[in-house]
Amino acid sequence: MSTPTARIALATCAELPDLDPDDLPLVAALAERGVSAEPVVWDDPTVDWGTYPAVLLRSTWDYSDRPQQFAEWIRRVDRTSTLLNPAAAVTWNIDKTYLRALEGAGLPIVPTIWLDPERQMDSRAIHTRFPAFGDFVIKPTVSAGSRDTGRYVAGETQSRSLAIMHAKNLLGVGRWVMLQRYLAGVDTVGETAVVFIDGQLSHSVRKTPALAGPYRKGESDEGPFHREGVQADATASEAELSLAQRVVDALPGLVPGVDHPLLYARVDMVPDDQGRPVVLELEVIEPSLFFAHGPGAVEAFADALVARLRPSGA
Which of 95, 107, 232, 248 has the most beta carbons within 10 angstroms of its beta carbon? Predict the structure, then answer.
């Protein structure tokens, strides 16, 4: 093992002060490469972030509760340290309205209707935007995991009433709302997550569906800290790999200030009604990277991170 010659912070949250278990092998892999990696809680007011030459975002999973505070922290850290991923990509990725940018670039996303809180929509106006059949999902554009998210049945009066109430409650506190059809392929195929390291495909996993019914306060408040579904090793299809690569390749043209591959990214996809993959989410802030399911992924990640710590031309 090398004697540490560099020091970085692995930003996490108070609920996971010692990191998520999936990230722990990264600490040892970095130590072997001469980098001392220290878990640090992102909103700890006693931390002097300027003492860390680099800060890697890992388990900051409570940021969606305080997105403005998190964005301000990101910008503050970016002034004193090398932030991984960079601040421009992170702040762009906080609000899921980034999906509109992906769609505008010709990338297929889960069909989405966006509800603006400034429009002060009444129950009837919300109701008219619901699909006529099938299941659908309501969630805020700033969230993590299944927090504040519910699944509803278009053909059931009681379910539609609950959906209206859910949407009104979110809009009433100034939150943008996403209304998406629940694609049936999620129940049969699952959700595919493709992980990229330094712009290159690393590995993929498949997750089983976890969203069962209407949102009820308290039931999904575990949010990102709750392990939803089951992650399993999976080989993504050629179509999934192609779409995921297109998403990653498009980022420099979509995010100002991002002109090179990100250290890490995860593209989550589900099949549409014709079985074709569509983007559910793009994660470049603090996604689980499922290192345990990617042979050699921890080592590749550590190598890519160390390369970013070297002075230009070294």
Answer: 248
Domain that holds residue 132: 112-181
Q: Which residues pair with 9 in a beta bridge?
A: 38, 55
Q: Domain of 243: which CATH number?
A: 3.30.470.20
User: Omega into 169 within 30° of 0, i.e. cis?
Assistant: no
Kindly give the pairing relationship between strand 277-283 and strand 200-207: unpaired
On whether residue 148 sits in a domain, the answer given is yes
Report the number of distinct structural domains present in the chain.
3
The confidence band for 56, taking pLDDT boundaries of 50, 70 and 90, is very high
Considering the domain architecture, whether residues 19 and 71 belong to the same structural domain is answered as yes
High-pLDDT (> 70) share of the chain, % = 89
pLDDT tens digits, one per residue of 205-256:
998 766 555 655 655 444 444 445 556 777 899 999 999 999 999 999 999 8
Q: Which of 309, 314, 301 is nearest to 7 (CA)?
A: 309
Which parts of 174-231 fold into alpha helices (H)?
A: 185-188
> Cα 268 to the chain's mean position, in Å?
9
Give pTM, 2 decimals. 0.91
The CATH number of residue 147's host domain is 3.30.1490
Q: Are residues 164 and 193 in the same domain?
A: no
Alpha helices for the chain (secondary structure H): 24-31, 67-80, 87-94, 98-104, 123-127, 157-172, 185-188, 238-254, 297-309
Rounded CA separation 208/229 (Å)? 5
Domain presence at residue 275: yes
Q: Where are the beta strands (DSSP E) in 15-69?
A: 35-41, 54-59
Helix (H, G, I), strand (E, B) or coil at 247: helix
pLDDT digits (tens, 9 = 90+) for 290-311: 999 999 999 999 999 999 997 6
